[in-house]
């Protein structure tokens, strides 16, 4: 059977949460598990964290309902709030917390009848100019929300960084200053830091941090790797060599003939392609781990396979294990070769890949 698989290390995941807690000691942790836990498996990841995370954050009501269906009782925040007034019925029924980022959501709450108390977070736009109310609207929002009887008190406040992943960019400090100024009169719980903010903006930890990528053992910072912060990769994307083929100097491999051998060598054909989520636009030279070393991707990635240059004197054999990213080869090192970021590598793994969840108790 084709052995292409993603191995998910739940012990590493919990280790990463402990590391985050030690970096942001004193803050509660909202574990971001949206987008199928960044491709790692929503329910499995949430179950592994449910005793240690203070809250889960998701993007859609459907994601929240999957967690409740799996009997996860931890508080859940909808990061983009409700998409229409009807969502409020599900919010109440499943005890979800909601972000409010624009006026139509507040109007839906004004018109909603319930005897339950809904917990809300007001999202403020401190400069990213994506979601969120203008900072100067805060007073009006506060007074409007005070008149809505189904809201639990106190409301909480949040904002989001635009470029905390670039330590050279001082815009995060500008955003932090703006958020701080606008909200310092309110003594309520606040949240600002995503993964990059947790690492680079210690003053932005506030009451709650919101790590996504860090949980999965990957650094969001340009030019750095997770091991520098005592974080361990959670996903290992693995396959095997399905064929070895000698190739002569001057010959090419793959569709479009995008690579030519500059010496006689051996190609390893690896059983993974863009049909599994490996990026098709990964370039010649993208590192791939085989038998304790990295070898270069050569030629175009196909749907079901790709080729690597194993070298003229290779000792590799058909069936040998290959790691596309994981412990042996951090995703941070792979992503730039495909002009992308680790987030898209993780989210892109397709359903054809079999997922295995290992914990200390079932080491593979
Ligand atoms: C509002 C918000 N907070 C936190 C996160 C987590 O981000 P990261 O994975 O960079 O930690 C996200 C992810 O996009 C987000 O949208």
Descriptive report:
It is a single chain. This protein folds into two domains: 10-222, Alpha-Beta Barrel (TIM Barrel), CATH 3.20.20.10; 235-362, Lyase, Ornithine Decarboxylase, Chain A, domain 1. Helices cover 25% and strands 22% of the residues. The protein contains eleven helices and 17 strands. The protein has helices at 10-23, 34-39, 42-49, 61-69, 87-93, 103-110, 138-146, 171-183, 195-200, 331-334, 342-348; strands spanning 5-9, 28-32, 55-58, 76-78, 97-100, 120-125, 133-134, 156-158, 190-191, 208-209, 235-247, 265-270, 287-290, 293-298, 306-309, 321-325, 354-358. Strands 2, 3, 4, 5, 6, 7, 8, 9 and 10 form a nine-stranded parallel β-sheet that branches. Helix 6 links the parallel strand 5 (97-100) and strand 6. It is elongated. The relative contact order is 0.14.
């Amino acid at each position: 059977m084709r052995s292409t698989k993603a191995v998910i290390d739940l012990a590493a995941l919990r280790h990463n949460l402990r590391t985050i807690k030690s970096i942001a000691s004193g803050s509660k942790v909202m574990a971001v598990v949206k987008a199928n836990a960044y491709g790692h498996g929503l329910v499995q990841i949430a179950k592994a964290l449910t005793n240690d995370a203070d809250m889960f954050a998701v993007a859609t009501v459907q994601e929240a309902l999957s967690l409740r269906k799996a009997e996860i009782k931890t508080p859940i925040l909808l990061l983009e709030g409700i998409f229409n007034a009807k969502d409020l019925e599900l919010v109440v029924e499943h005890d979800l917390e909601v972000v409010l980022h624009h006026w139509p959501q507040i109007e839906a709450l004004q018109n909603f009848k319930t005897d339950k108390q809904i917990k809300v977070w007001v999202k403020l736009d401190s400069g990213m100019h994506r979601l969120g109310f203008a900072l100067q609207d805060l007073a009006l929002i506060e007074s409007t929300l005070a008149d809505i009887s189904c809201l639990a008190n106190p409301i909480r406040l949040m904002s989001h960084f635009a470029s905390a992943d670039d330590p050279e960019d001082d815009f995060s400090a500008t955003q932090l200053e703006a958020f701080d100024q606008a909200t310092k009169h309110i003594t309520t719980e606040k949240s600002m830091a995503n993964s990059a903010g947790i690492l680079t903006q210690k003053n932005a930890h506030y009451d709650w941090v919101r790590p996504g990528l860090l949980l999965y053992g990957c650094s969001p910072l340009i030019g750095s790797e997770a091991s520098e912060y005592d974080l361990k990769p959670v996903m290992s994307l693995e396959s095997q060599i399905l064929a070895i083929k000698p190739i002569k100097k001057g010959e090419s491999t793959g569709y479009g003939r995008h690579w030519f051998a500059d010496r006689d060598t051996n190609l390893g054909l690896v059983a993974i392609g863009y049909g599994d989520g490996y990026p098709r636009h990964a370039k010649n030279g993208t590192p791939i781990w085989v038998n304790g070393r990295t070898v270069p991707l050569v030629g175009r990635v196909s749907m079901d396979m790709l080729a690597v240059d194993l070298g003229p004197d290779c000792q590799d054999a058909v069936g040998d294990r290959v790691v596309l990213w994981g412990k042996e080869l951090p995703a941070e090192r792979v992503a730039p070769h495909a002009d992308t970021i680790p987030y898209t590598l993780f989210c892109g793994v397709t359903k054809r890949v079999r997922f295995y969840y290992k914990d200390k108790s079932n080491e593979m």
